[in-house]
């Protein structure tokens, strides 16, 4: 309500439109005690943006006409959160903790509309009163100091006590701001999440009872809720009492032995190294939001570093907090997927619908947990950090800075051998070294079976490495392993070449002679199965995007296919080991950047590949992650797999193809325009859902436009039609758009393209993206800016948009709540999708549309009255690997190429005229 118009600018969307047209974005978040607003806008529009922003605090309208609409917006956000099991569980625990944190804080339609009306409460009047009482200058901090005095001069100052006194006594576990300098949550997190020898996590893994131990914390000025979370295996769930005993054995060991000052001081020492070798966030808006939050948390002197550096390491304080972790203070919660079958007379939490029972721990059990101790040698206090870099480790090497473009090392042809790229320290040097490698595996051995079995094995090796290298990881010396559709992804990071060599030797040995315990492999396989069988781990719109990926990518697979394979006898440790050996002939693209010389970079990569036992593979024989060249429209109707989720999700996707430099820029501008249009129309006006938007994106070498909406208010049939209407009306808007608006979007895009890289990591990723996909277009932004400044016109924009909205390149995914699985259907290429693409499938059936069963060849019928062939289409009842792969093979794939040159201006002008 605050952002829906002011006396000076009464239009409800005026601020959002201004920010978008001037190259910016804005958002806000509210936690238990504060609201942080953050905005970003082009430099030359800052003063006007700040003036407009300040009006929300001086004279907002709080127009009652929008009250119901905004209540629905809040309700949509709440409905989005309901399926999330972690959020549901944590809220239930909080509600049992009593005090101010136990209340339902986000709101829904019942609390914001239905109940107030029943009780005669004027919500708008309450909002105005709250705004008048708490939105006072004495309670505000602002990071734009240059303009604050002029923009906020009419915001009245009121008594600070109005905002600081509360109903709850100030009895705190953590003693206000000073405790934050000690970073107690960080210290406790290290103690409980440590996975090395003698840790709780490793013990539970060895017992087969748990996969991971993590910490969850909610902290306010009133109190702190600190939780130790164990992700249980099936065995652990059956023996949760034993797991609880292990947790308290570990806590009691920490209490009895104590955490010495060396452990705490070493963490503080590493935090100082991390801070002094860090660079600004890649998102200036997020950085401003962080600093605004810190202004309300730390003294001014500590605002920049207070949340990153342990300013006051205090082992006594940490040990004091450990003494407070007693069974009497604990809430022990167990999340049981079979709860409904086992519980008697459960309570139902009213806002998230969580069924639960509550019981006191028996006195005997609390006494047992208080006194329980582990056998000698099982647990130990995590050690002090032993690899904190010294001053000499942080000195920058001379003569390798200022490189903005990577250099290919060696004489080898990258199409036949490994390619190693090096960029020195880049343009923003820090005492760090990063290496990324993509190892493309043989195409003849790369398929869903090899990808899946190898993924389980690599996850097991990664867990071993986590336990063995945690002391290196804590000091910034890290490794990451992963499996993608086209091969293995391996990454390393360290402060020095010597540290890098050490961690790479450890990983190389794991690849050369992998030894994985059968129990570990089976536990991790079951964990992956559990994750795939838990649809609530993703939101509805993410399931819809997953469906689109299965249809359009050669290496994306349905959950059903993956589960069938994981549960089959093909996914065993023995088979996985055999498969890994078959995949060791690889084509590697490696990128090295940082405080490392050219010879050291080349040696590091070559030594790793040799030590790990990788062979060489010509690029022509390597697997590729490709996108289907869509030649006919597709519509998929699938059920929302999340139990009891009321949300639908709709994805409308248009494929542009391999873009030219000009088309990249045009689609970036169009994406901004369409995102604003859909957000204003479908979210702000229609309130169809909390997640609404459009954006351009590139996958492999293919550029597309994607529109997404998640919500419960309208069926996806209606939503798809509304999105299509907005997309079609956009073309006319492009023709009639005022020149001023057109120029705003042009300048917004220019500002984004001219924005320099903010830090070492951003520069590394930007170069790596061009290397990993074989684009090698390192001057892409310069070319885009050249086009924007010379040949970018309204006609060029319309030309790209017309090409984009070609009906044969449309994909629609309709994910429907409460749809029976038997109703799932995917239509590919039926003429009804061309003639009436937005109509519901039931209407298409009623019109007599014929849906052919799938056969190895796409079916055609010959129309004797003409020389044309009419495709009867393809109807898939599921997205199984077989029929989807056959469809993809017949359609063909876009090549993995990148256009890295501008078309002549004369040619572009000719195309405009034509």
Notes on the structure:
The protein is an alpha+beta fold. It is built from 35 helices and 22 strands. The strands form six sheets. Strands 7, 8, 9, 10, 11, 12 and 13 form a seven-stranded mixed beta sheet that branches. It has a seven-stranded mixed beta sheet with strand order 16-17-15-18-14-19-22, with helices on both faces. The radius of gyration is 29 Å and the shape is globular. The protein starts with 13 loop residues before the first helix and ends with a helix. 34% of the residues are buried. Residues 145-150, 152-176 and 844-871 have low confidence and may be disordered. Keywords: Hydrolase, Metal-binding, Metalloprotease, Protease, Zinc.
Strand content: 5-15%
Tell how many strands the DSSP assignment holds: 22
Mean pLDDT score: 88
What is the helix content?
Answer: 40-55%
Structural domain tally: 4
Using the CA coordinates, give the radius of gyration.
29 Å
The number of helices is 35
End-to-end separation in angstroms reads 48 Å
Keywords: Hydrolase, Metal-binding, Metalloprotease, Protease, Zinc
Domain Peptidase M16 N-terminal: 1-83
Pfam family, one: PqqF-like_C_4
InterPro entries: Metalloenz_LuxS/M16, Pept_M16_N, Peptidase_M16, Peptidase_M16_M, PqqF-like_C_4
């Amino acid at each position: 309500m605050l952002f829906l118009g002011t006396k000076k600018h009464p239009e409800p969307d005026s601020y959002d439109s201004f920010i978008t047209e001037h190259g910016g974005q804005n958002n806000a978040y509210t936690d238990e005690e504060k609201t942080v607003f953050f905005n970003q806008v082009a430099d030359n529009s800052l003063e006007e943006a700040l003036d407009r922003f300040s009006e929300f605090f001086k004279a907002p309208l709080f127009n009652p006409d929008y009250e119901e609409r905004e209540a629905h917006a809040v309700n949509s956000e709440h409905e989005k959160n309901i399926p999330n099991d972690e959020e549901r569980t944590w809220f239930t625990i909080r509600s049992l903790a009593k005090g101010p944190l136990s209340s339902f804080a986000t709101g829904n339609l019942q609390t914001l509309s239905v109940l107030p009306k029943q009780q005669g409460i004027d919500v708008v009047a309450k909002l105005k009163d709250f705004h008048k009482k708490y939105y006072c200058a004495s309670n505000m901090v602002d990071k734009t100091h240059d303009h604050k005095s002029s923009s906020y001069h009419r915001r009245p100052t009121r008594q600070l006590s109005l905002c600081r006194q509360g109903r709850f006594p100030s009895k705190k576990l953590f003693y206000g701001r000073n405790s934050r300098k000690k970073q107690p949550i960080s210290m406790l997190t290290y103690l409980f999440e440590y996975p090395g020898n003698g840790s709780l996590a490793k013990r539970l893994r060895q017992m087969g009872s748990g996969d991971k131990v993590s910490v969850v914390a909610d902290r306010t000025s009133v109190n702190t809720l600190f939780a130790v979370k164990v992700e249980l295996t099936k065995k652990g769930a059956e023996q949760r009492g034993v797991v609880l005993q292990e947790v308290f054995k570990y806590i009691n060991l920490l209490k009895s032995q104590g955490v010495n000052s060396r452990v705490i001081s070493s963490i503080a020492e590493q935090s100082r190294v991390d801070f002094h070798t860090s660079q600004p966030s890649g998102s200036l808006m997020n950085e401003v939001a962080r600093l605004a939050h810190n202004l309300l948390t730390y003294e001014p002197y500590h605002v920049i570093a207070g949340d990153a550096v342990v300013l006051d390491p205090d082992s006594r304080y940490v040990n004091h907090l450990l003494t407070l972790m007693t069974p009497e203070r604990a809430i022990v919660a167990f999340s049981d997927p079979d709860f409904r079958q086992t519980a008697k007379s459960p309570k139902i939490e009213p806002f998230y619908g969580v069924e639960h029972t509550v019981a006191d721990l028996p006195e005997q059990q609390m006494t047992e947990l208080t006194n329980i101790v582990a056998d000698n040698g099982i647990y130990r206090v995590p050690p002090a950090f032993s690899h904190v870099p010294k001053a000499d480790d942080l000195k920058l090497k001379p003569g390798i800075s200022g490189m903005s473009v990577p250099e290919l090392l060696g004489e080898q042809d990258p199409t036949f051998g490994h390619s190693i790229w090096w960029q020195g320290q880049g343009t923003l040097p820090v005492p760090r070294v990063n290496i990324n490698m993509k190892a493309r595996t043989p195409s003849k051995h790369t398929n869903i079976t090899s990808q899946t079995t190898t993924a389980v094995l690599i996850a097991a090796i990664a867990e071993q490495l986590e336990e063995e290298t945690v002391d290196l990881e804590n000091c910034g010396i890290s490794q990451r392993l992963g499996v993608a559709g086209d091969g293995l992804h391996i990454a390393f990071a360290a402060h020095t070449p010597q540290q890098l060599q050490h961690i790479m030797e450890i990983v190389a040995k794991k690849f050369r002679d992998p030894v994985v315990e059968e129990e570990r492999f089976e536990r991790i396989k079951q964990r992956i199965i559990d994750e795939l069988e838990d649809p609530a781990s993703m939101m509805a719109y993410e399931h819809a995007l997953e469906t689109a990926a299965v249809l359009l990518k050669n290496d994306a697979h349905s959950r059903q296919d993956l589960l069938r394979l994981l549960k089959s006898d093909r996914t065993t440790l023995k088979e996985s080991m055999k498969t890994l050996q078959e995949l060791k002939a690889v084509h590697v693209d490696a990128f090295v950047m940082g405080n490392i010389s050219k010879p050291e970079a080349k040696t590091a990569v070559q030594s790793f590949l040799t030590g790990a036992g990788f062979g060489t593979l010509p690029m022509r024989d390597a697997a590729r992650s490709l996108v289907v060249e869509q030649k006919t429209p597709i519509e998929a109707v699938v059920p929302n797999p999340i139990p009891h989720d009321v949300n639908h999700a709709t994805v409308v996707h248009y494929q542009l193809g391999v873009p030219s430099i000009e088309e990249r820029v045009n689609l970036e501008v169009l994406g901004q325009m369409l995102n604003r249009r859909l957000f204003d129309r479908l979210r702000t006006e229609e309130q169809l859902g909390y997640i609404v938007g459009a954006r351009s994106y590139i996958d492999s070498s293919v550029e597309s436009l994607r529109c997404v909406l998640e919500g419960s208010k309208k069926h996806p049939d209606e939503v798809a039609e509304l999105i299509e209407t907005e997309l079609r009306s956009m073309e006319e808007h492009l023709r009639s758009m005022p020149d001023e608006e057109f120029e705003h979007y042009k300048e917004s895009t220019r500002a984004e393209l001219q924005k320099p890289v903010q830090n070492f990591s951003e520069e590394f990723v930007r170069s790596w993206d061009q290397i990993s996909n074989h684009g090698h277009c390192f001057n892409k932004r310069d070319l885009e800016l050249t086009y924007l400044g010379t040949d970018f016109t309204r006609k060029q924009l319309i030309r790209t948009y017309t090409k984009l909205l070609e009906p044969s390149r449309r994909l629609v995914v309709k994910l429907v709540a409460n749809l029976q699985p038997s109703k799932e259907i995917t239509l590919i290429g039926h003429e009804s999708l061309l003639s009436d693409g937005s109509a519901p499938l039931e209407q298409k059936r009623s019109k007599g549309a014929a849906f052919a069963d799938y056969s190895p060849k796409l079916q055609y019928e010959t129309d004797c009255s003409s020389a044309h062939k009419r495709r009867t289409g393809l109807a898939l009842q599921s997205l199984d690997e077989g029929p989807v792969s056959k469809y993809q093979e017949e359609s063909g794939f876009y090549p993995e190429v990148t256009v890295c040159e501008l078309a002549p201006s004369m040619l572009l002008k000719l195309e405009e005229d034509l």
